Amino acid sequence: MSVKHPRAGRAGAYGVKAAPYGFLAPAAVLFLLFFALPIGYALWLSLHKVEISGLGLGKGARREVWAGLENYAAALTDGELGHGALRVLGYGAIVVPVMLGLALLFALLLDAERVRARSFSRLAIFLPYAIPGVIAALLWGFLYLPDVSPFHYALDRLGLPRPDLLDGGPLFLALANIAVWGGTGFNMIVIYTSLRSIPAEVYEAAKLDGASPLQIALRIKIPMVAPSLVLTFFFSVIATLQVFSEPTTLKPLTNGISTTWSPLMKVYSDAFVNGNVYAASATAVVLSVATFVLSFALLRLSNSRTAQGGTR
Question: Which position among 4, 215, 266, 306 has the lowest Cβ density within 10 Å, counted as fewest Cβ atoms?
Fold first, then answer.
């Protein structure tokens, strides 16, 4: 009869306890290198500035010094950043409700009993999400240009006025259309997956009670997929606040989009056009905090309404 050494048993126990940390180590290292450290470096940059002595020539003429909250004060009082935030809010007021409304409508239609070509329709609705945002913006941008757009050509042949979608108020609709076209498919898949997880017995009981398909959709399906709607809503709000590729890609095609049209474009302009990475870092931190606060407030509001609805 063999007897195991107690040290071997303890070593085996330690190995079992350390195994989860070993599996988590690669993800933790990647998180530290590509997420935590860049955030810490941005915070450090936002608290510094460059001090220039003399003409700024020669060794030691440009020094990095402590700035404290000076960059944050400049960012919070920057009129261009405020105007960009207002433009993004107006853009989001169009994108979020239209995109989620279409995603919910498509999900409900695909979840109906008598639907032909369900797989093809699901793929066709989701396919625009697989196209990179820059390519989608270029495609729509050329469709908006009066000289090359087939839609403008058709309107001209019919003797109808050709709208300028790249200037003034229609510009918001043009940008929102790109976001809605590209993001509806993803949100539809999330909502549709949630609909497919509802037990069939719930629908059968509703049919026995005489509920119509419209009543089932309004009173059963939509309330039961409310968590998915909340999830897609938060994703859409965050993506809207971070809009960058669409206006940046369309900027060479129109004079209606400035280099600071959105807050992220302002950060890019400060960092890579004006060369002031310190001010850009402070603006980026302000935007991150504002996004977090807004998301947290919306989440608390959603949770409070859900709790009130559950107690009724």
Answer: 4
